[in-house]
Amino acid sequence: MKILLIEDERQLSKSILTYLKNEKYSCDLAENFETAQEKLELYEYDCILLDLTLPDGSGLQLLKQLKENKKSDGVIIISAKNSLDDKISGLQLGADDYLAKPFHLSELGARISAVIRRKHFKGNSSITVNDLEIHSEAKLISFQGKPIDFTRKEFDILLYLAVNKNRIISKNAIAEHIAEDNIQFFDNFDFLYAHIKNIKKKLAAIGAQDCIKSVYGMGYKLEAL
Predict the structure, then answer these.
(1) Residue 174 in contact with residue 192, Cβ under 8 Å?
(2) For 44-71, how does the pLDDT look when each residue is reduced to its tens digit (9 = 90+)?
(3) Residue 61, Cβ neighbours under 10 Å: how many?
(4) Which whole-number Å values give the CA distances from 28 to 74, 83, 136, in the listed order?
(5) Parallel/antiparallel/unpaired status of strands 140-143 and 47-50
């Protein structure tokens, strides 16, 4: 799952990013309005953590643009503004949740999980494609009840394909999803090919062959029968 943190307080953003990466999330950071706007135009996120007070603009304006552009990313407002009017304004503009600063990171993690469950798993904590079951929060994958050992990147790729099952997902979209803020350092898809090859090999070894289809010139698809 991929998260965008829009936060200009460096110590706080550092703490949040460390916590989320320990929880196995892929994370991007935007420290101002302009950077956040650029990332929101380019990428899709499973959850956005949005500070309302940015040095060069308003988080509410970003939220308004997000909804005007019909983006479906989950949004949790994290703000030192704790008035009822601020909460109502954020939720009426389309935020999924509102968490006032200061907060415990574990509470933030629980709220992120809740937003992702509602967004991708119909309120559950796992998604099933054919006999493949992926537990988002426990970071476990099993086939016909048998657990499979995947690396974090392999897990992220398979979950991303499962959430978008029966859709062809471009190599570029997958690369962006797993590369966090480091996509500029990759000048080819060799790292993605290696991960896909390993995933297919591990699935085939346990009997789940041909789950992932390679679509020539386009990308990959996880087919639900």
Answers:
(1) yes
(2) 899 999 999 999 999 999 999 999 998 8
(3) 14
(4) 15, 28, 19
(5) unpaired
Please tell me the distance from the alpha carbon of residue 129 to that of residue 60, in angstroms, as a whole number.
Answer: 37
Q: Which fold has domain 2-121?
A: Rossmann fold (3.40.50)
CATH number of 126-222: 1.10.10.10
Please, which residues bridge with residue 147 across strands?
142
Which of 60, 50, 49 minimizes the C-alpha distance to 85?
Answer: 60
Residues of the chain with CATH 1.10.10.10: 126-222
Q: What is the 3-state secondary structure (H, E, C) of 150-185?
A: CCHHHHHHHHHHHHCCCCCEEHHHHHHHHHHHHHHH
pTM of the model: 0.78
In the chain, ranges of CATH 3.40.50.2300 domains:
2-121
